[in-house]
Design a protein that fits this description.
single chain; 468 residues; 5-stranded antiparallel sheet; 17% helix; elongated
Length: 468
């Protein structure tokens, strides 16, 4: 038997040589470049533009105030069932019919059983109902659910008064010989004013009597006076607001109160209907010693005659101009050069005549083009770019041998305009500023225009940096 031959133990696996070609090299190079660009873009802070537009900034303070009016409550002379005929919020003259008192209640039954003709509500009356509903929807607070019941009774009373007023136009059908008419007392107004059908105990309130507890509306009770209710002698039946002059008292911080008093007159926006008005402001002390501001009006009383609490905004500033974000604003230093040393180049560009020295040490002059960023009319000085000039440089007055050494600096507030593809500083005049935005003056010689593009974050660029 032949012996089996062992395989040699020095056999090695053949490795295929790496076959590089030009295509693979280009692919790897492109891949490395793309990865580098992605990584570099993640490290660089992106420059975002902002389009300049016209706008306004109103620094508003919202408050809920207590209305203080000249109100007089009228009480019933006799008992019976009451029916109202004057519309709430309507001005009544002396002698106008406001309500009737029916001792037996038969008048209401008679009116309901008698054909009184068309009793549809007019457009004005429907507008009144829509206004009352819209006001409630606008001011409704889900946490104050009890206000729904007050609104329910208020709306019910309004509908009944409107219906009664329409029926009253045809009540002449009840002749004087009727036994019903003899049992009805027609009650007329003893004075002139705005009639309302509710009481709350604050009718004798004065601004100095206001305290913090009065702003706790959970403890506030508004008594709605409704038609077809049985009243007794001495009950409140309606009240008259007898003067168009009225006040709102709002709780404020001491510094705000002093600011408002210093302004004397303040612009107010009523949140109920967005109506704006002016009021005279006065800082007072309430009965609890806390600071309050009394806002006095000579109009709009009838609009809020049914409200004790009125929501308002104090519009302390309403400047209109170019609206820009505060993040765009930057400070930059400039050299101050007297106007007499400015001149024009051959192509009409602005600049100065700069004194220079050649290699032999001889003096010669050279025109240096410079950008102007602002002009101070009072001191007759131009603000020139500090990058174009050097501290200690001498400039020469045109047509003269007088020299001025560049040394004085001043800073300007501005933004970086990017219309030309690089960060170009533009000076701005801030009219008003809050925590987020500023309103700057428009149509200035060295400033911004509407629809300019500026750098959103001024800290992300350097002066004259190319952006795109």
């Amino acid at each position: 038997m032949a012996q089996r031959q062992q395989p040699p133990n020095n056999i090695r696996k053949y490795r295929k040589p790496l076959n590089l070609n030009i295509g693979m090299i280009i692919f790897v190079a492109i891949l490395v470049y793309v990865v580098y660009c992605i990584f570099a873009s993640l490290q660089v802070e992106h420059i975002s533009p902002y389009e300049v537009k016209e706008g306004s900034l109103a620094m508003n303070y919202s408050y809920r105030g207590i209305a203080v009016r000249q109100e007089s409550v009228v009480v019933a002379d006799k008992a019976g069932y009451i029916n109202y005929y004057a519309r709430e919020g309507e001005r009544v003259a002396c002698g106008d019919l406001v309500y009737t008192v029916d001792e037996t209640g038969r008048l209401n039954d008679y009116l309901q059983s008698t054909d009184m003709g068309d009793n549809a509500l007019s457009e004005r009356e429907l507008a009144e109902l829509r206004g009352e509903i819209g006001g409630f929807v606008h001011s409704f607070d889900p946490t104050d659910f009890d206000s729904i019941y007050s609104f329910k009774y208020s709306l019910k009373g309004t509908v009944m008064r409107l219906a009664n007023a329409n029926m009253m136009q045809n009540i002449s059908r009840i002749n004087d010989s009727s036994d019903i008419i003899n049992m009805v007392d027609f009650c007329r107004s003893a004075g002139t004013g705005i009639v309302t059908y509710w009481t709350d105990g604050y009718e004798e309130l004065t601004p100095e009597m206001v305290n913090a507890d009065m702003f706790n509306e959970k403890e506030y009770e508004k008594n709605q006076l409704l038609s077809v209710e049985l009243i007794t002698q001495g009950d409140a039946v309606y009240k008259l607001s007898t003067s168009e002059n009225w006040s709102l008292v709002i709780p404020v911080e001491e510094d705000i109160g002093l600011l408002l008093q210093e302004k004397s007159t303040v612009k107010i926006r009523f949140l109920k209907n967005q109506y704006e008005s002016w009021a005279t402001a006065k800082l007072i002390r309430g009965s609890d010693g806390d600071p309050y501001v009394q806002l006095d009006f000579n109009n709009s009383m009838v609009t809020f005659a049914t409200d004790r609490y009125v929501d308002i905004e104090l519009i302390l500033n309403d400047e209109v101009g170019l609206k820009i974000p505060n993040s765009s604003i930057v400070q930059k230093d400039f050299y101050l050069v007297p106007a007499a040393y400015m001149t024009k180049g051959a192509d009409g560009t602005d600049g100065v005549i700069l004194e220079r020295y050649n290699e032999e040490g001889n003096i010669y002059s050279e025109f240096l083009e410079t950008s102007i960023y602002n002009y101070d009319e009072e001191n007759q000085e131009y603000y020139l770019d500090s990058a174009a000039l050097q501290l200690g440089s001498n400039i020469i007055m045109p047509d003269s041998q007088e020299k001025y050494t560049v040394s004085r600096r001043a800073s300007l507030t501005g933004v970086y305009n990017m219309n030309k593809g690089y960060a170009d500083f533009r000076q701005i005049n801030i009219l008003y500023q809050n925590e987020e935005y500023a309103i700057v003056k428009s149509n200035t010689r060295y400033g911004l225009n509407v629809y300019d593009y500026i750098v959103l974050n001024a800290a992300s660029v350097d002066d004259a940096q190319f952006i795109y």
